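Notes from the 1:1 (GR / supervisor)

We went over the backlog. Supervisor wanted to see one worked example end to end before approving the batch request, so GR pasted a single chain during the call. The sequence is below; no edits were made to it. Supervisor asked that the structure be written out right there so they could see what the output format looks like.
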Amino acid sequence: MDRTRIGIGTIINGLMVGTFADLFFQTGISVTSESILLNMCNFIIGTAIMSSGIAIYICADLGGEAGIDSIMILLSKKFDKPVNHIRIVLDILIGMIAWLIGGKIFVGTVLAMFLNGPIIGMAIRYFNNNLKWTIEQKYSVQVNED
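Structure output shown during the call:
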């Protein structure tokens, strides 16, 4: 097993993501609206921020990825496939498992399955072109869409 992606960021990620999600939900702040247009804007902005954030902490090389993000990087390297394609497949598989055990799948879930990977790939490409060091250079991971 490749443990090169495990680091201090892995622990921080594991502790902080759930903590901040719980804190946000306790505030009672709602990002939903009766306006479908506003809800769509919230969805698009939220998905872009989340996916870009994933790319940022992957490129920081602190081993901060959540399990699915580490799997995405490892499978991309193993099968020499772009992270965006790998992420789409992983999101679909996880969505199917969630549905099989009683989870609900809605339009936003399906859209996120197909948007997360490409946005993560574009963000990693952006950081690859604008930062001295990135995961693509160190781990030989494909982030292009070919």
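Supervisor's comment: The longest helix spans residues 36-59.
Batch request approved.
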